[in-house]
Amino acid sequence: MSSREFLRVAVVGTGGIFIGAHLRAYPELKDATLVGFYDVVRSKAEYAAKRYREMIREKLGKAEAPEERERLNTILKEMKVYSNLEELAEDEGIDIIDVCTPPKWHDEVAIPLIKSKHNVMVEKPMARTWIESNEVVKAVKENGVLYQHNENWVYSNVAVFVKKLIESGIIGDLISVTITFEHNGPEWKHWFWDPLVDGGGTLIDMGTHAITAIWFLVGFDKKPCYVKSCCMKVNFPIRYIAGHMKRINVDDYANIKIIFEDRRTKDVVIGNAISSWCSSLYAHRDILRVEGSEGSIRMEYEEGKVVLILTTREGGMRKVPIQRDDSFANEIRNFVNCVRYREKSITDETIGSETMAIIGAAYLSELEERRLVALGEFKEYAGKYLKEAGNYKEAADMLIRDLMKPYRAI
Q: Could you tell me if 84 and 13 lie in one domain?
């Protein structure tokens, strides 16, 4: 078995999302494997490498096929912890880089790696702001590499099956899609609550899931045109965050509307994205509801299992159980195959960047008394900071400070 029969992956950022969600996917891959680790805190990268080495050795102990044993031994021989990002960028043996840093560094890490001709997938959100994500889009276009916006919910069994139901026409013409993502808030880490690191609050954290998933169900061929904040606020202004009781300065609840237009027919679909770090207040909201002209789909839980409830106008009702899957593993497999076959991901750099524009437009809508904001209008608004600032990162900081004004006055 040739050692180049599988793609090599390296990770940048070996914190919570990588250890808790991405790492478990790699031992099961056949066409690619993880061999490189980098984190600004070297001990974290070494810990991740140690965990992965243990996983591979466990599989090696159970492997019987000679080619599989050879593949696993090759992984153990090639595993490496990098000293700096430059060393990783210069490694031509790496095919894919999995970026799992906090949002402030998503573009700062991705752009030099893209310029060194590496294919890159980046954990959501794509960046802190549309200003930064647009720089990534430029880099991808200029360097001819592949990029994936890692929004795992799009790759889940639930999303894929609901998409099939919509496209089958069983609920008629699509009218609206509502998705809610909520939990009590990531109080274990300071950076989630620092807008200059995360870019905002629950809208950019949980809302990114809802926005991209809604767009997937509506159809990525549809154009997001307008955004309106229905309610973005701070419900719990005092939080105990990573051992520190403090006042927060970002939204912990957001409810926004997005108007999508079919460019051919000019028909519109309404997306309702709700995100919350206050689930004790809103624990019983539906997580997914799709309305069509002839029926509806909603997601519920029965005995801990996901069930889709399909209702038609004639009064028919069916329950469809959905098999549990690992959406993080699915998104990683998807990008591996995109690189293998040189195909763009369905959640490419444009989808990631336009999601950031939707988020920015929602924050602008809240800032300006919840008026309807066109995406083009928001981009012009962000562009004024690019003209005033010395560089795009400074412009992004200025934009964030502006958009976060409503949450500082609590």
A: yes
